[in-house]
Amino acid sequence: MKQIRIHRLAIISGILIIVSLISVQVQPSQLIALYLQRYSGVDALHLADIILGLLFTAIGLLLFELRQTRRLYMVGLKLKKHHARHVQLLNKLPYAIAELDSHRVIHHSNDAFRQISTLQGLPSIQQQIEQLFNQLEQNSDQQSPTLLQRIQADGAPLICLEWQLHRSNNHLFLSGRDITQQLEEQDRLSISEKIIESTPIGVMVTGPDKRIQYTNPAFEQVTGYNTQEVLGHFPSILSSGKQGADFYKQMYQIMENEGSWQGEIWNRKRNGDIYLEWLSISALKDEQGKSTHYIGMFSEFTAQERVKEKLRTLAYYDGLTSLANRTLFNEHLQRLVTNNNEKQLCVIFFDIDGFKRINDTLGHHIGDQLLVAIANRIKETCREEDTIARWGGDEFIMAIEVSDSHIGIDTFCKKHLKSLKRPFLINGRELSITASMGVSIYGDDAHSSAELIRNADIAMFQSKKRGKNRFEIFSPAHHEVLLESMEIENRLRVAIKENQIDVHFQPQVCQGSTICGLEALARWHDPVLGQVPPQKFIQVAEETGLINDLSELIYHVALKKFKTIRAIYPAFGLSVNLSASQLQDVNLVTTLKQVTDAQSISPSNIKLEITEDVLMSDIEQSIRNIALLKEMGFQISLDDFGTGYSSLSYLKDLDIDEIKIDRSFVQDLISSERNKAIIEAIVAMSKVLEIDCVVEGVETEEQLNQLLQIGCTSFQGYYFYKPMPANQIIELLTDYCQE
After folding, report:
1. How far is 586 from 622, CA to CA, in rounded Å?
2. What is the pTM of this model?
3. At the topology level of CATH, where does 317-448 sit?
């Protein structure tokens, strides 16, 4: 035990000695001497133990020193890593950061700062630093002054930087960040806000609880509520009561499922007025898909609905008569065809006879008033279930259903014809019209709405040809006539273009058998159709607008051949027919003069034949043209006399040279005393008025004898001569002159 204590004492003593050596820097020999003097009980035998203790102590101290050195090294290494991480973190920051000293010199900076320095240069950054320090000096209370800098290199986009100076204790830091995108976003938000504020569309924003958070000025204009009055309220403050709870439940269900809803909705304004609006609602959702806001945009639809209704009226109804137009009629007719029941479906197409004459004579304003009156009378005569439309111009169309087609159609059409014959009082003037009707029956020859309309139109066309003021029910024969007419029209266009129209001449005789003139009559032999009768192709030309071109060609061919005839027998005059279109043409006089002069023929040798209905188609223009033609020397002959209108009334107003009694009076001359009396009256009148009188259509000797007894002196007809080509006329006149 004693030795153990001595060893412990030796170790402790050794430690104390080493500490003393380190602290007071004393020689070891001195320490040992002091130790032996202090502990007199320790002899030399224990000196080895003491030295051994000292050795262990030295080793321990060395290990401790090594451990401390290693710990310090590890701490330094950790600090370096920590600093590297801080530097790396600073370099990754989107902000430019730099440390300044008290002299405003940059000591440390991150990568972002160095990039900006490269872009704009340190002098420029130094200027920003100076400005920031100036702000700091001017306002000592300002801890972090801020400065906005705009940079735009050549050809590069604009960059906006925000610099800020931070002061913390004795340290100064400069930070900068690119706020270009932020400013652009602010600009966009500002523009969006202005658009929302100025748009005429009402905007309302609610939160997830459906309470109103925002409204724009248009909202107030439409609803009458300002923003303060509706903030915090539910949109139901606008409810009109026209839509039930189920409507709104379904609306919100669709909006949650699909993200939006749109449609028409009735709401109520602040003043109580109910209005129709078009509403579009969109749900804004967060990242979890939860709705955060609802944006509603709406525009008042009431005025638009009125405009829409007006457009529908314009699209489906005739602006003059307020009847349905073609579009609406076609839709109704298609439904009738689709839903056809046990009743017979018919389409009736009718045209007003003589309307053009009224329209041209009295003016379009009178014509329009007459059309309105006709439409009203048609509506009065029709049943409520009948469909009526104005097809265009003076054409009307109806779709009706009757139990017995033919009896029902007969009754219906006769009722309308009788109704339309009653005079119309327009501006204090009585106007009388008739109508020509065409009927087509579904299922007979028409199996679609288009065929019904087409067939009714064809039947109406036949009704006009057969005398007007009547109705015709479509038959396949009508269609064949129309097809023939179309074929004639197509071939006639070619014939006019290629000068395929020929002219034959029929002599007129005076005083028994003396040839005193010729009438030019058109003839056409087509390579495809063969010989086409004049009454067919001339009628087609009038109906299709080809009559002017055809008449001009006939006149040119007739005068060219007449020039050759006159070289043999110059005493003859030539009669040429004028159509209604020609007589109303303002260029008629110039055209006739040019053709006549080209053949070196005097106008006094030409007699222009016109009919009474041609005169009446436009009496004023007809009178003007006749006066001009008379001034140039042309003679005027009134053809088909007695079959037109007001024959006697315009004989005194027009300078007529000749009248031609129509062949219809001659055909029944032998058996009809009335026809004989009419001819006698016309002949007597012509003598009093000193107008030449020619009788057409003389075909028998008995007719000639009767006419001679009446006092007729000039004739034309097959009894004397048939129309013949120019070469036969030349042979005839050669023989005639030799006699």
Report:
1. 10
2. 0.50
3. Alpha-Beta Plaits (3.30.70)
